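Researcher: Structure prediction, please.
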Amino acid sequence: MYNEIDLDKIEINAEPPEEEPARQHYFIAKCRKYVKEESERLGRPLYACTVTFGCQMNARDSEKLSGILEAVGYELTETEEADFVIYNTCTVRDNANQRVYGRLGHINSLKKKNPHMRAALCGCMMQEPSVIEKIRKSYRFVDLIFGTHNIFKFAELLANMFEAQGMVVDIWEDTDRIVEELPVERKYPFKSGINIMFGCNNFCSYCIVPYVRGRERSREMEDILKEIRALADDGVVEIMLLGQNVNSYGKNLKEPVSFARLIQEVEKIPGIRRIRFMTSHPKDLSDELIQVMKHSTKICRHLHLPLQSGSTRILKAMNRRYTKEQYLALADKIRKEIPDISITTDIIVGFPGETKEDVDETIDVIKKVGYDNAFTFIYSKRTGTPAAAMENQVEEDAVKEGFDRVLKVVQDTARERVSALWGRTMDALVEEINEQDPEFVTGRLSNNTIVHFKGDQSLIGTIVPVYLKECHGFYYIGEREDKWKN
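Model: Predicted structure follows.
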């Protein structure tokens, strides 16, 4: 494991090793020298800021970036007025790209005031050739650019940046490599995401992820379990298994293993009290997994099951590979086997060719499934995807009308589902001091519902029983059970 590496004993004047992760450990040691020299020149510590856009996979990647920045000698900060700023980008929707360009304008003004400041870009957005071309032309002040496939090379790329005169760009089109055992700076000491696989093979017609994240590749089960055991020893009580489609985990391993089997092995690890996972593609969710969830005492009672559309016609155009009826049958099976489960989803409104009747079909599914929450999006055309070339793009007014209709039903259904918990006592993992009232803490139930209740710093990272006293739409005000009894 990385923590066992003594960086001071690495000979940085020798040739770097060829093998990973030893090669990156070498460059971490080398970068420490560069950071130390610049810190001494400025007469103060150097600060670094990692800004994350996008999904849980990006958030986990950012923890790796922050871990390496800290290992090379930077002090981490949340302000972008730092000596080194890196944007870990998302490109699922166009507005994510526009947000990055907007932030780059701000960084340019900061760099003019602080000539020693450095800026970097990485993540999904950087896998688009048109983006790289635009940055080279219009944002030449950026010092380092890399993508999703070579994030493990961050320390090596940092060294190149320190040694280079001008922009360093390193973009890989694809990879079959998985390199772990590098520094990680977790946002929460008591919970952590775990990458179990990378990439996606589904090629939904609206989605750019397979093009920027590459083909599916799974980590070896024992490597995952080893990492989780180390996290448990470090005080982690909740883990989230991460992948673009976790249900297809293990299919491409030399000795295939199912996702359900992986979870069963994770359950055996002492100290881990909660297991979450994201995301599940409906076409791959197995009966085996449903049964494992049903009988588990550690798997959280929450399943994110993206629908995208309730219209079979639109689902076919999306290349989702299930019908409305198949999705409803799956949701019904899950509800019957695990009655207390919370099901959340993703919905896209305004996909090319969508009609009012198609939106009606989506609303019908929402009502029949009874989602506890849904992330509802307006279709975003992504250049390079099949959907972007479809001729029957939906008019903006029609999209807005359909979106508003869907959103109202989602909110009404979610309120009804969440309110059904009123008066119960349920375990909550305390995550943080409440942002609005420091006398309260914020916890998360197994089914992912948020509850706020009176408490202090000492409760953070613990799981406590909470009486759900007041329902406020999508969250609760509660009281600790022992206080309520008194």
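Model: The radius of gyration is 24 Å.
Researcher: Thanks, that helps.
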